[in-house]
Amino acid sequence: MGMIGGGRDAFIGSIHRLAANMDGLIELSCGALSSNPEIALLSAKDLFLPESRSYINYEKMIVAEAALPSDIKIDFITIVTPNFAHFAPAMMALEYGFNVVIEKPMTFSLEEAKQLQQKVIETGLILCLTYTYSGYPMVKQAKAMLNQGKLGKIRKVWVEYPQGWLSTLSEKEGNVQAAWRTDPSKSGKSSVMGDIGTHAAHLAEYITGSKITDVCAELNTIVEGRAMDDDGAVLLKFDNGSKGVLMASQVAAGEENALKIRIYGEKGGIEWLQHEPNTLVVKWFNEPTQILRAGSNYAYLSSFATHNCRTPGGHPEGYIEAFANIYRNFALTLNCSLDGRKPTPEMLDFPTVEDGIRGMAFIDTVVASSKSEKKWTTFNL
Amino acid sequence: MGMIGGGRDAFIGSIHRLAANMDGLIELSCGALSSNPEIALLSAKDLFLPESRSYINYEKMIVAEAALPSDIKIDFITIVTPNFAHFAPAMMALEYGFNVVIEKPMTFSLEEAKQLQQKVIETGLILCLTYTYSGYPMVKQAKAMLNQGKLGKIRKVWVEYPQGWLSTLSEKEGNVQAAWRTDPSKSGKSSVMGDIGTHAAHLAEYITGSKITDVCAELNTIVEGRAMDDDGAVLLKFDNGSKGVLMASQVAAGEENALKIRIYGEKGGIEWLQHEPNTLVVKWFNEPTQILRAGSNYAYLSSFATHNCRTPGGHPEGYIEAFANIYRNFALTLNCSLDGRKPTPEMLDFPTVEDGIRGMAFIDTVVASSKSEKKWTTFNL
Amino acid sequence: MGMIGGGRDAFIGSIHRLAANMDGLIELSCGALSSNPEIALLSAKDLFLPESRSYINYEKMIVAEAALPSDIKIDFITIVTPNFAHFAPAMMALEYGFNVVIEKPMTFSLEEAKQLQQKVIETGLILCLTYTYSGYPMVKQAKAMLNQGKLGKIRKVWVEYPQGWLSTLSEKEGNVQAAWRTDPSKSGKSSVMGDIGTHAAHLAEYITGSKITDVCAELNTIVEGRAMDDDGAVLLKFDNGSKGVLMASQVAAGEENALKIRIYGEKGGIEWLQHEPNTLVVKWFNEPTQILRAGSNYAYLSSFATHNCRTPGGHPEGYIEAFANIYRNFALTLNCSLDGRKPTPEMLDFPTVEDGIRGMAFIDTVVASSKSEKKWTTFNL
Amino acid sequence: MGMIGGGRDAFIGSIHRLAANMDGLIELSCGALSSNPEIALLSAKDLFLPESRSYINYEKMIVAEAALPSDIKIDFITIVTPNFAHFAPAMMALEYGFNVVIEKPMTFSLEEAKQLQQKVIETGLILCLTYTYSGYPMVKQAKAMLNQGKLGKIRKVWVEYPQGWLSTLSEKEGNVQAAWRTDPSKSGKSSVMGDIGTHAAHLAEYITGSKITDVCAELNTIVEGRAMDDDGAVLLKFDNGSKGVLMASQVAAGEENALKIRIYGEKGGIEWLQHEPNTLVVKWFNEPTQILRAGSNYAYLSSFATHNCRTPGGHPEGYIEAFANIYRNFALTLNCSLDGRKPTPEMLDFPTVEDGIRGMAFIDTVVASSKSEKKWTTFNL
Hints:
The structure is a homotetramer. Chain A is α/β, with parallel strands linked by helices. In chain A, 36% of the residues lie in helices and 20% in strands. In chain A, a hairpin with a 5-residue loop joins strand 11 and strand 12. Chain A is globular and about 65 Å long. The mean pLDDT of chain A is 96. The B-C interface holds B 11, 14-15, 17-18, 21-24, 28, 47-48, 163, 165, 255-258, 274-278, 293, 295-296, 310-321 and C 11, 14-15, 17-18, 21-24, 28, 47-48, 163, 165, 255-258, 274-278, 293, 295-296, 310-321.
């Protein structure tokens, strides 16, 4: 693995490394870890990268690594830069024959996303997108249960994502993470929908297996002086006829990262909260609620859930393990691809360029709806 | 107290009696307990009412009771009939000089509500409306904290009310409660908003002290064959500039009565769930979350909360006590009124005709918005 | 109902009145509400008792009431004085032909308890003891499930009762409740075991249907200057071969009234916490945990549970309702007895003199064990 | 890192590898992964170990690795065999100059533990013991708060460890993990206390900073046909004058791994449950309960907590991260030691041979107490 971005002071880069390290399948071999060449090299040193594979920018890294012998050459490149700096390195990496992992949202604009999709199709390479929350075993369990019709016909989706970290104008007080996320030139069309709304929308589509067809959105800039939206709510229609509500806020003061989804069908409902990710609450009409737990009650868990558990029930796995599940499934699929084997459905269960492009279209559609006086705006891809 | 409605097989009438009994301030003295004269008399017998004060219809009761000497005569009449049968007995009771307690929603239509308001003003009598959930001490605590500015400027309100009991077409299978609530001739313009949405809207306005000014609503009839809506979502604007989302469903299969409200301000947020009503979660920006508990930590509780607690912390009070708080405050206010004393602000803290009229206007506005292709509809009173 | 004790400043007396009022089956008709004659009369006035039936002491009340015509005379007397003042009025009430309700622990000493039992047997009257927590519907559900063998053979009982209210030497600072409870001349042999340990022991025996046979106890006086114990732990053996642990503390600073019981059998375990009394968690070996809820899932609930529910699921009932269940079952049984009907098993399900005597023996045995250097002390009755 | 044990079908070995991998500080370089030479080699292959460093037994590994040049040679050896096979490889590793990580309990007997301690002292090498649960940041936070006197004088410790996985005689049905843990020749004097009781005792001593001085224990073999105990309860005295209760069971059917500790002091109490490890509940006398969260509210967290967090609040870390914290602190300390730097107190905060020896003495004392008819048995080291 080579990494672009993720140097000192970055947040998500270190998570990617923890996740990639975990299962002993992936080794960080090279990096262009910052747009500042000096920081790039210092960061590489922090991570014990050899000087010869510590690069001052991604262009040099891709060119140099592509020229290495195949037994040394990296198999894929991970891109963990801010949103505006995903597209160029991703395109170049694919052109030079590298598979790619990208932090979400996939690109800065829907147009870029479409070009990237085209390139993936052309090259036949794998693009993995780290919609982290779909890596949790109990999210996969929920998807499997809905897919098997356990809840009957799906009727209603409620997904919410309250965060509070942007409750003050911290982007003006030196918070680097806040600064680029609230800068329209770096973040994209929407801060709240790009940063967290896409996670929520992906989770809803992933678990239900349905697609959003229409939205009615309202976006707000709640903190005075902020250059972008930081809060929003969206009414949803899905292609299976169900309805939904998506709520996302970066200014829900006092909240951490409380992504939660509830889905109701004819026979019951599921509830999953990211803060307690090893628990899936299954509510039944006229029957007692059941608590399904990762690593326990194996007879009740789908192979898609158990494949993504490392520990027995009661030994909690968390965010890094969910992230690592995406990396592991990507790596297992890649290994199959390299060896000419056929990956299992469980291995193939990671987000790809198709999910990325829907995320970008979701942002576009929500922003358009928010500006519209019409109630409903069609989700266009 | 005299009671209209609430005979055998009724649900809410028995709750009213439990609540009214609790504190030893109110005695059930007479009743016209069913629209069916025979059942009315049998129900009165069940409740040990004297035959002389067991009436076959409300008209007879009001006339007869009004003629009794003042030391025997009831002070007020409670109306617990289905929605369509609130208005006429309420008007007549007021005309005959009786104070009134009415189950929500106050009337069948906004027009009736306005007439009732007019009559209350004319007579100077008290009309108490049983928006139960505002009777909980920790709801009052939330209101007090917001009123004192503890959370800073209010930014966002999320209120949700999932129930699952109408997940099937039970109105066609002999469920009496379901039958009238899903019958437009008895329930009003909206089932889901009349039955539970008004509770949620009232709670939001009560705690924040703000008024809804605009709504963007979507109502659904999810169960096939049902004559009325059973699910809905509403985006909200408030007169203090904050925004909100209200979700209500009677078909969230597996849910009981999970009314929950979260309100976020500049400095933090509050969270209250009716299933665990003695707990108020207070989340702070950059400080630890606090758990306030009814009956405990008196130094932290408002007098509006403590006035409505009967037991020390850890001896849970519930729904009947919340209901009883409304009755007790109404009765205390009524006693003051009869004695010429001035009630305290804590006593006066029960829902009245003003709340009732806003509830009816909320239903009207939401139904209008749901039919509109415009995003926003103004809340008109 | 006549009441002895429970005047101004008393705690449990007002709970008894709330509970007795609730269901409209019981009316407070007379009282000797304080050992201080003046306060007795003022307290009676507070409660709207007629002067003619407001007594300055219990002896006068019992004599006077016994002389009233039977259609006016009370059916039973409730004794809510401190522990040391239970026995004399209870004996006298029984002698004068009144049924009796007593707050736990039943008496000051085991010797008194045995005499009381003898008197109950002689008179054929009913003595009801308010072990409140056995009045909760989900406690009754747990008992029914164990009784039906749902968990298989019982193996282990863990019951705990942490309170924090005596964390400081508040008995020296004017706290009346603390003062008599920590005074050996008023409270009995043990404060912590008398006040709360007996509740825990009763709950364990009630739910399991087994009897404690041996204890290994350790009692502590944790707050310096206190005249009695305020904390303890007890290892238990039961007559069905299972083992248990009972923990009780009045100095668990920060705790409210967190009585909790867990019982494990061959096939699974149950967990019930008094702070969330409408929920019974049922854990199964190798199957998902189930959440049973009062008022919901009626097909899964025992008649002993549903008989004691007033509201549908999600409308929480609490401590006062649990208390009221004891009063209601006692009153229903008493009505049957007065009418010559046979009470149902559900009506008969309230604590009696047998439970009271076991409670007193539990206190004695635990105190003896605590003083012993031997590990196990036999529970002797 | 070299690993002894942990081959195919082992449980804890894979956890050690996940934990060691996570932070990129440790690399698995060699192994003797099974007592079965064939499985040892196959397991090494599974883990991509080079053939030259895949050993058929630990003796060969230690000798061969010790002979390697220092830039290739491993720095430490991890021993993850069953309990009876800890001592010999640990002694040999120390003799050959390797630092050692050992899975708990440290040895088979107290005698072995004392010899190991002696060897550690002689060699000056580091022995790290993986009492996993002390690696959680909120456990460290609890320790820091108690150490700072935030709760005042400590009064009471309740620690419980219910598991249900041994509820049936699975050791006779091919469960390898169950088989050795319930075999006295492999597990030691006590199954329940060796496997989980030591974790609970360590947690209590670690957080309070106090030592157990006396125990009153009762051990049970609940599942018929089992060769060792599987359940127990222990009353505790600590050297700071506080008292405690420790409950551990492997047959609490339906439980996963629900280690929980509550500690009460004069001013309040803390509560930590391993199933939700990122939360520390802090209860205060007469003040609202606070919820401290890993990664959030940094101003409230001790450096010992924050040093062991990898993610911001709301991105849950779990069991593998707690394990990894022990490895990371050990590795950071070892690096300091190799470089001649002084480790920080936060780095040095991992369990060592001293903790291991106390664990073995705890097992011995509890077993002796369980056989004794005396109430209290002195904890002898």
